[in-house]
Design brief:
By secondary structure, this protein is mostly helical. It has helices at residues 19-29, 32-42, 48-59, 68-80, 85-98, 105-110, and strands at 4-8, 11-15. Strand 1 (4-8) and strand 2 (11-15) form a beta hairpin.
């Protein structure tokens, strides 16, 4: 099974959504593809709460005890490691790819 990996302070988190988590995500923030389209078209970043929500739903499958407050803490730790909020867009894109929202580059290369 494919999943996105997010490493914070040496701990690997596996992120992926199944249909149930995708439905829950869409109920909360709408279709996440609209966020990515806005990033692409307007050259703006999604709001941090939206990114946190995507990460939180991606964690439900493999890390069910992690809530949004913990995600904010992990982001703070990750940023202290020298990463940027812009890099969070790459992570959310990867979560959406492995969850079936958008084709992954691997799949596109096979075509």
């Amino acid at each position: 099974m494919k999943y996105a990996i997010w490493t914070v302070k040496g701990t690997e988190y596996q992120l992926r959504m199944k249909a149930r988590q995708c439905g829950m995500l869409e109920t909360k923030i709408g279709n996440p593809l609209n966020l990515l389209m806005k990033v692409e078209l307007d050259h703006t970043l999604p709001a941090l709460p939206q990114i946190v929500t995507i990460i939180a739903h991606g964690m439900l499958m493999h890390h069910p005890g992690v809530n949004e407050n913990k995600i904010y803490q992990l982001i703070d730790e990750w940023l202290e490691e020298g990463h940027t909020q812009t890099e969070l867009i790459e992570l959310t894109t990867e979560i959406l790819q492995v969850s079936g929202y958008i084709p992954s580059e691997e799949f596109a290369d096979e075509q």
